[in-house]
Amino acid sequence: MAEIEIGVLPPSAWIGAYPNLSTLSREVSAWQKRRNRARCTIEWSFTRQDADRKLRRHYVSELTC
Question: What secondary structure, in 3-state letters, does the chain show?
């Protein structure tokens, strides 16, 4: 989720576009408040079933004691 939000940040919010970190922080905070007021959402396309298929090899199938 974080990567998606970073991906939609306008290029002007990237490091180097503002003279200092506090200005960047204020601008990103204002952008975030606007997105929250607009109730922007993320439309997920990766389902639980997709995760099960893709990550199956990482699951522990049975415990051995």
Answer: CHHHHHHHCCHHHCCCCCCCHHHHHHHHHHHHHHHHHCCCCCCCCCCHHHHHHHHHHHCCCCCCC
